[in-house]
Amino acid sequence: QKEVEQNSGPLSVPEGAIASLNCTYSDRGSQSFFWYRQYSGKSPELIMSIYSNGDKEDGRFTAQLNKASQYVSLLIRDSQPSDSATYLCAVFLYNQGGKLIFGQGTELSVKP
Amino acid sequence: DAEITQSPRHKITETGRQVTLACHQTWNHNNMFWYRQDLGHGLRLIHYSYGVQDTNKGEVSDGYSVSRSNTEDLPLTLESAASSQTSVYFCASGRAGSYEQYFGPGTRLTVT
User: Fold this and answer.
1) What is the DSSP string of A86-97?
2) Selected residue of B101, B102, B107, B108 to mutate for chain A interface (largest A Cβ count, 10 A)
């Protein structure tokens, strides 16, 4: 089992819809979770951090964390074509000597 | 404005040559990291530093070295470049005590 797993996609949604991106992780002791957005040819950009169970909202973005299920997700409401990018889930893994481990990313395509 | 920069942005070198990639940040962040990103492997940690004179190996450190003589800079050296080191290299930094990381624009390295 990979330490951080994401569906590679591509995930295609129509403009205005809700995009749901999912991530599972292996270390039950992890406490810190992040979502990065990466446009093609660009560097990853931190868009959300979440540390507690439940939902965290920032504008059109909502991060959801369920530590019991070892599951973190990102919802993008009212998706726009400008949201088309690869979304990387990152988990701080204590059992790896304290390192941020990235999933391989989910490619999101928002169709006008 | 505070920022993180990488140079050069593109580099072509020959097998066996020593190459140094520069990373400079003006956020006064204690933590600095080097990653490589390849199709099928995602972001992989090469080396990292939690402060001046501190350096640590990541998961793919063979053939790479770093040194940290001040807070602002963490240069990455490829001792003897190999074709397997053709990749996009990202530097990142973060505050002490925080697991959030902020990425530089990247360096695309080609080893021929």
Assistant:
1) EEEEEEEEGGGT
2) B101
